[in-house]
Amino acid sequence: MDWQSESPELWAFLESLHRGDILSGTVAAIERFGVFVALDDGPPHPTLPGVGFLNLPELSWRRFDDPADVVQAGQRVSCEFIGFDTHNAEARLSLKALEPDPLQAFADRTVVGQELRGTVEEVLPIGVLVDLGGGIFGLVPSREIDGRPASSPAEGFEAGEEIAVVVAEIELPRRRVFLSRPGSGQYAGVVLPT
Question: Please, are residues 93 and 82 in contact by the beta-carbon 8 Å criterion?
Fold first, then answer.
């Protein structure tokens, strides 16, 4: 569809937006792939539930299983405009851009070598995923668990178990936290798959 000729009012609205603009609206529909927002200052969309759209990664800094865990239909929201999708003629929005980044806050108050307590979230073939609280998760690579080789599974840990860990590395650009077990030595540089 040629949005410029089919819906000139919508196209003009989208072209008037600038990255970083704060837009308000109402959650119009929640889908498994994202959330539609009816924007207060925007025209109605001719085919979609709302002119604004929140991709799942832009909903929250925290992990969630369902978008309805973050927002509800009919809820008022303020979002940052991050760009527009010319194919669907919708404003791409970010809810999390207006919230403080919990990983940055964690990095600001935590130092490498600091011992923390966390809860085992999941045992993976490459190591143990640990919930450090506040939406922060870190990986204890298999090689850091009692000196086992990196190829060993992280046996002996159960989801929900509280364990002591040491912060080995915080990678802000890649949004990763690596941990080790107290007394197991320095972190040796395992890279998580993306």
Answer: yes
